[in-house]
């Protein structure tokens, strides 16, 4: 067998290559390749890579019915309903959860806050490689966390931490942050891709063998590229991202991956002096500072997991100063915007060539389901023609290439949410009328089958 050679690793995205590259073929960064010894975890490879592999005994193979009866999924509530929902109904025993987000967004605050409630029934080990024990104490005081079950360990040696977890057996572990953790046997600096990956593997192993849920904080760097956490995503059980704009106090918690629940759920929080507060009624929050009597605005009724949310879509269509007009979409799929513009041009005879087009979804929300097509198209139409759309109207529906409005899911929940928030009219795909008993709702329901029909309905 060939001897383990040195490899070249991209320090930006973690790509491994047998030879040095000036530019990383994966992430496109220049001069990021550094030479490393191929990482071989202690005493592992010699046995496992030998060609004389032994087969597993019949005890290692289990029948499915045996497994399900033995491993009953145990979930802890965290005391924050929004976080529990994003986790899929609470924190699962033995799971490894990555909480990613930009520095300063509130990851440490969120995790420290749940300690008060979780501490009622469990001991918590809070490992911090970033802040001193005193700093954590000060923060805990501010957040009103004074449980006796919270233990702080301000250290960063991952192997020693895992040993401590195995021996002390706390109920829940928080690692803040993975970028500050290191394994001394690995010849690479703290926060590097190799260290992050190997530390995560180690924590995963500890979480599974000791059956202790572990939260890992991972920083996402400024340009949105998730250098550190990206390499951890496939290792961990759940990936939660904490997002929001620094200047706004709202924060959105989103599940990117979840082995124990849906990835569509979002949790909404507000950062205040006393820490993060849950926002149980996000639609109201998102619509609270809506401009009145302005063209280019339309309220979308979208589903975030199991919850309907009303969000404002803003479009601005203006004369371009450039030969190639600009198109930007914030919170909406860029390619989908092109498709909708093409349908508006071809099927309705409108003209957006030579005009800049901007789309923004208010409040940092991302509308990535097809039902958001119709409100985006209506906002684009409204801005182009300067015709107002009533602020008591909401719409949802997928747009097809023929200009037809196609059916979407969860009709009743969407219409009920629009009604609850005092909307007077709701434009819905005609195909969905079979699921809806119009007489049960006070809100005016307008079924449409084409984009033309929808535009006629809003400009009537
Ligand atoms: P933090 O949790 O330290 O962020 P992260 O761990 O993601 O890097 O959050 C720090 C920010 O939160 C900081 O800008 C101050 C703000 N903050 C409040 O507004 N109120 C509070 O009660 C706390 C604890 C923090
Ligand atoms: Mg922090």
Major sheet: arrangement of strands = 8-7-9-10-6-11-12-13-14
Tell me the number of structural domains.
3
Structural category: alpha/beta
- Oligomerization category of the chains in this entry: single chain
Radius of gyration: 26 Å
Overall body shape: globular
Please give the CATH class of the largest domain. Answer: Alpha Beta
What would CATH call the architecture of the largest domain? 3-Layer(aba) Sandwich
Helix content: 25-40%
Total count of helical runs of at least 4 residues: 13
Poorly predicted ranges: 43-50
Distance between the termini: 77 Å
CATH homology group of the largest domain: P-loop containing nucleotide triphosphate hydrolases
Q: What's the CATH topology label of the largest domain?
A: Rossmann fold
How much β-strand is present in the residues?
Answer: 25-35%
Q: Which hetero ligands occur in this complex?
A: thymidine-5'-diphosphate, magnesium ion
Task: Report the count of strand segments.
Answer: 23
The chain-level mean pLDDT equals 87
């Amino acid at each position: 067998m060939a001897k383990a050679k040195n490899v070249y690793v991209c320090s930006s995205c973690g790509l491994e290559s047998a030879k040095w590259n000036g530019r990383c073929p994966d992430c496109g960064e220049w001069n990021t390749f550094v030479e490393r010894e191929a990482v071989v975890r202690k005493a592992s490879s010699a046995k496992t890579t030998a060609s004389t592999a032994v087969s597993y005994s019949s005890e290692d193979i289990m029948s499915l019915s045996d497994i399900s009866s033995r491993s009953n999924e145990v979930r802890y509530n965290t005391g924050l309903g929004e976080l529990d929902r994003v986790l899929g109904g609470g924190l699962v025993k033995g799971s490894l959860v990555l909480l990613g987000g930009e520095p300063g967004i509130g990851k440490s605050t969120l995790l420290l806050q749940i300690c008060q409630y979780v501490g009622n029934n469990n001991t918590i080990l809070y490992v911090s490689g970033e802040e001193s024990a005193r700093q954590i104490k000060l923060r805990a005081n501010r957040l009103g966390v004074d449980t006796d079950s919270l233990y702080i360990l301000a250290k960063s040696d991952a192997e020693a931490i895992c040993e401590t977890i195995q021996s002390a057996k706390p109920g829940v572990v928080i690692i803040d942050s993975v970028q500050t953790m290191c394994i001394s046997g690995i010849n690479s600096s703290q926060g590097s891709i190799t260290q992050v990956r190997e530390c995560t593997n180690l924590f995963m192993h500890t979480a599974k063998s000791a059956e202790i849920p572990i939260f890992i904080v991972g920083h996402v760097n400024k340009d949105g590229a998730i250098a550190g956490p990206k390499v951890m995503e496939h290792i961990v059980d759940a990936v939660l991202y904490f997002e929001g704009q620094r200047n706004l106090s709202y924060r959105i918690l989103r599940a990117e991956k979840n082995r124990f629940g849906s990835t569509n759920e979002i949790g909404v929080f507000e950062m205040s002096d006393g820490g993060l507060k849950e926002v149980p009624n996000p639609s109201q929050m998102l619509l609270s500072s809506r401009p009145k009597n302005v063209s280019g605005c339309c309220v979308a009724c979208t589903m975030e997991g199991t919850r309907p949310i009303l969000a404002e879509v803003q479009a601005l269509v203006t004369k371009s100063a450039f030969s190639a007009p600009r198109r930007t979409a914030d919170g909406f799929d860029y390619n989908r915007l092109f498709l909708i513009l093409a349908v508006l041009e071809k099927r309705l005879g409108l003209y957006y060539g030579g005009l800049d087009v901007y789309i923004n979804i208010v409040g940092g929300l991302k509308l990535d389901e097809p039902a958001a097509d119709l409100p985006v198209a209506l906002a684009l139409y409204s801005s182009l023609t300067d015709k107002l759309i009533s602020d008591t109207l909401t719409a949802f529906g997928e747009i097809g290439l023929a200009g037809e409005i196609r059916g979407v899911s969860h009709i009743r929940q969407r219409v009920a949410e629009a009604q609850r928030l005092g909307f007077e009219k709701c434009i819905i795909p005609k195909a969905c009328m079979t699921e809806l008993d119009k007489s049960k709702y006070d809100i005016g329901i307008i079924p449409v089958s084409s984009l033309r029909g929808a535009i006629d309905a809003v400009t009537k």
